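Structure request: 26S proteasome non-ATPase regulatory subunit 9, Mythimna separata.
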Amino acid sequence: MVGINMNGPARDRVMRLIQDKDRIESEIREQTAVLETNNVGMDDPLVDAEGFPRNDIDVYKVRHARHRIICLQNDHKSLMKSIERGLAEVHKDLIGSNGEGPSVNAAASSNGHTNGTSSGDSVQRMVVDEQAFAVVGFVSDGSPADLAGLQEHDEILQFGSVNHQNFEDMSQINDIVVHSVNQRVNVKVKRGSITVIMTVVPKPWQQPGLLGCHIQRKT
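Returned structure:
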């Protein structure tokens, strides 16, 4: 990939939105840490069998953390949609400026970096023709996949070390997920006319599974 040196209001807006997204993800991690400290999730009861507040957790902090996480997740979803619209605008500007139709990447990782680069390098030109080998089905709210930015109907171009050239079956994806618990996995998807790069961290959450989304082979 070769970075494009772009200056313009559309790109600047996208960069600001990505910074806001990183800030929200950081606060979600902070609030999630409150729940983990109290050994509870988003749905565990806060009262004992007799209906009294549990004395083994800080009920006030847990309530506050849960409420804040829900609000932040809603903000995160809205931001991701705004980023997608902004990228489409940048893509349109690129087509108008050079007469070509390059794919545009938004490297939006959950650790505040963009695919190993700074946010300023996150808008790039694709120089390799890539093909999707899998498609994202449903994505559960608040799941690791949701927080990473995966959306239903995303076409997967790369998942960790797997791409269309070495893909054989879905067990490869499952193996990567199982062996990457609490580790970052780079994922590249095609979303409409743009390419989005993100980082997903498989991990246990309040529902079964490590990703919280359904991925199936592209037919």
